[in-house]
Amino acid sequence: MRHSPFTVIFDACVLYPAPLRDFLMWLGLSGRFRARWSRDIHEEWKRNLLLNRPDLTRAQVDRTSDLMDRAIPDGLVDGYEDLIAGLTLPDPDDRHVLATAIRCGASVIVTFNQRDFPADVLASYGVESQHPDEFVENLFDLDAAAVVAAAQRQRAQLKNPPIDVDHYLEILFRQGLVQAVKNLTTYRSIL
User: Fold this and answer.
1) How confident is the model over 20-65, as pLDDT tens digits?
2) 82 vs 86: CA distance, rounded Å
């Protein structure tokens, strides 16, 4: 896998929905950026998922986070905890995400909760927040082939039951990837 110095933190809210998490992981495997997260980020998405999905077990969601950590071996960031207390954000519970970004030198936090990561605060650390759709659109502009390949790989793994292209694009659309789906539609014949 190619490695880029461009580093991105995935916030818990983008790891919570499985279709979006899987797509972001396939993008992370492209080597166009370094996908990163922390144990606290893992715990946050897993805790919220278990609250809303009583049909899932802790072992199942732990298996998912373990697979993520194995798929992208340097994805897990450690040593950020000492930075948390010195950070100020609208929601103090989000400070661990910014601390993780600072610790690993991330340029972007991919999140749905952009209001919780004010641009002026993040700019002082050389970080910005991006909605997942904006992030994928920027990546598409950088390397459309990498985004298309990630979509191909994700769709190919959806075998039980198989997902047709239109249904697959609808799933991504429901994840908030409006522009990404518009861009991918151009390539629907090879998805």
Assistant:
1) 999 999 999 999 999 999 999 999 999 999 999 999 999 999 999 9
2) 8
133 in the same domain as 148: no
* In-domain check, residue 2: no
Contact 94, 113 (CB under 8 A): yes
Q: Is the pTM of this model over 0.85?
A: yes
Parent domain of 17: 7-137
CA–CA separation, 42 and 82 (whole Å) = 18
Using CA atoms, how far apart are residues 48 and 74, in angstroms rounded to an integer? 24
Q: Do 88 and 169 belong to one domain?
A: no
Looking at the structure, tell me whether residues 67 and 24 fall in a common domain. Answer: yes
Residues with Cβ within 8 Å of 132's Cβ and at least 6 positions away in sequence, in order, are 14, 20, 24, 110, 111, 112, 175, 176, 177
Nearest CA to 91 among 117, 54, 53? 117
For residue 162, what are the β-bridge partners? Answer: 159
Q: What is the CATH number of the domain that holds 69?
A: 3.40.50.1010
DSSP state of 3: -
